[in-house]
Amino acid sequence: MPAPSSEVIFHAYPQSPVAEKVRVVFGIKGLTWRNVEIPRLPPKPMLTTLTGGYRRTPVMQIGADIYCDSQCIIRELERRFPSPTLMPTDDQGLMWCLSRWTDGALFDQTVRHVLGSAGDKLDKDFAADRGRLYLGEDWAEGLRKANADLPHLVAQVRAPLSWLNAQLSDGRDFLLGQAPAAIDAQFYHVVWFLRGRWADGPSFLSEFTHLVRWEENIQAVGHGTQIALDPQDAIALARDLEPVSETGVAPNEPQGLEVGMPVTVMPDVNGGEQPVAGTVRFANAESIAIERNSDEVGTVCVHFPRSGYRVDVV
Questions:
Q1: For a Cys-Cys bond, which of 100, 118, 163, 269 suits 122, CB 3.0-4.6 Å?
Q2: What SS3 class is residue 178?
Q3: Which H/E stretch holds residue 20?
């Protein structure tokens, strides 16, 4: 195992499709990592103690640095563990642009599809929590509409899967060639979600024979090596260490952010979520890191993407 200050600690629950995306990245990298299992539904007191209120899944912790959102997590894993790379071609910029669709509109479409297919069988507490995030404040009406619109929703997800199937039709093992890449993980979590959480998923996916072969290749990559960790131990580790991320604000900052400035950060959607408050430690076009302090965890640095998140100066 690496030293406690550098070991990867992953806060997630097994059924999370976004966590599955990151677990595939662990497999591509061949990493050994600590697994802290969190609840599927709020409250998530051990997690929010670390993050300052952020409750989405997954969260990655390395020492006293806390990384929120898979976008931020994948970028940091590539920086810390560059080989084998997640970017085996020269199209890194295009891959990140495409990931905003796979993680945004495509994933949201798939969630509506899965929730709508469940209809009245969906757990009410789960429906209330996820419905607000993906169907709006009037989530109950949105859920009814998704159920009624299911054939349309199936048609909408069928089109991009046919594109992926065509991409793989030349016999390549992965989307960019013979080596797995970040974009494989980012598409795979959508397919994994459809197969595992929609009753008709396996029969629906059987149409795409090259895609099914690709799924099997991704599964063979695995998830690296995971070792369970108690959440209290993760909190104690953060409390005993200090953040090591860099400090500074890149030029051309559009919001006038400066190191030490008090801010709040939260997802840029009306999901009823709590903003995280702290002071700016680092900011550039891709990410922002804020320091926060509490008796439970001491000083930690919480990292967020800029894309898809709102930063407000307090």
A1: 118
A2: coil
A3: helix 17-29
Q: Give the model confidence (pLDDT) of 189-220 as tens digits.
A: 999 999 999 999 999 999 999 999 999 999 99
**From CA 309, how far away is CA 269, in angstroms rounded?**
8
3-state helix, strand, coil in the chain (%, to 5): 45, 20, 35
Task: Outline where the chain has alpha helix (H).
Answer: 17-29, 45-51, 70-80, 92-101, 107-118, 124-135, 139-148, 150-167, 182-197, 201-205, 209-221, 231-240
- And the tokens for 69? 């959102």
Q: Is 80 helix (H, G, I), strand (E, B) or coil?
A: helix
d(CA 25, CA 29): 6
Structure tokens at 245: 């991320």
Q: What is the pTM of this model?
A: 0.95
Q: What is the CA radius of gyration of the chain?
A: 20
Here the tokens at position 299 are 């000083």
CA 124 – CA 61 distance, rounded (Å): 31
Q: Which H/E stretch holds residue 76? A: helix 70-80
User: Which residues lie closer than 8 Å to 251 by C-beta, 6 or more apart?
Assistant: none
């929010």: which residue's tokens? 48
- How far apart are alpha carbons 115 and 161 in whole angstroms? 19
d(CA 155, CA 157): 6
**Rounded Cα–Cα distance for residues 161 and 205 (Å):** 9
Q: How many CA atoms lie within 13 A of 306 on its CB side?
A: 15
Nearest in space to 282 (alpha carbons), one of 69, 67, 14, 115: 67
